[in-house]
Design brief:
The protein has about 230 residues and is of the alpha+beta class. Helix content is about 40%, strand content about 20%. A hairpin with a 5-residue loop joins strand 6 and strand 7. The chain is elongated. The protein starts with a helix and ends with a strand.
Amino acid sequence: MKVPLLLALLFGAVSTLHLRTVKSNSESFLGDEITLQDGEMPENEPKEAPTGELTPLEKEEEWYSGMEDDPEEEGAVECDSALDKEEEDFQCPKEEDIVRLEGSPGCKNCPRFLLVGHFRTFNHAQYVCQRCYRGNLASIHSASSNGQIQNTVRGLNQGQVWIGGRVTGWGLCRRFFWVDGSRWNYANWAAGQPSFYGGRCVSFYTQGGRWLLDSCERQLRFVCAY
């Protein structure tokens, strides 16, 4: 009788010890959970960046912000720089360097044209027209105006002169416009023009009066309207 009794007492003691151990572990687990709820960060959570140091997201936003400040084309910066340098010692063409075209008979409000004999890039030519004659590179809206200009420039050895047409967009989305803001309602393109592989500015053939797209950086004589 003593042996079964001792075994029962021993079993009871082991069971009691096991329950205390489980309870202790449960309390420890709940304590950790409560601590996290009080605001402490677990070790595997990202920590805040030290003061003054950018997070990866902030660094990415700063990079994109810097990209927005960049010019769309390097050519635009070079052109502005060249115009600034030219303006420092700028002089309008002398009277002997220009040829004034006779206006249309009986038309008081029609634009007047003049041919400038200096060789300039497209943007520089437009600058001269605005600065010296309060006008723009010529826009052409009729066959009579086209013929009027051609009669004046046909004697030039230079094969082309600038007029005020430009291109915006690419491929099938191209659009032609005049730098003076007037409507594009007339064109007199040469055969094979306007080419998809040409430039972005419109020049005028002195022989025949046809138009073509050319590099805007090419230096040509030019026609102003004022």
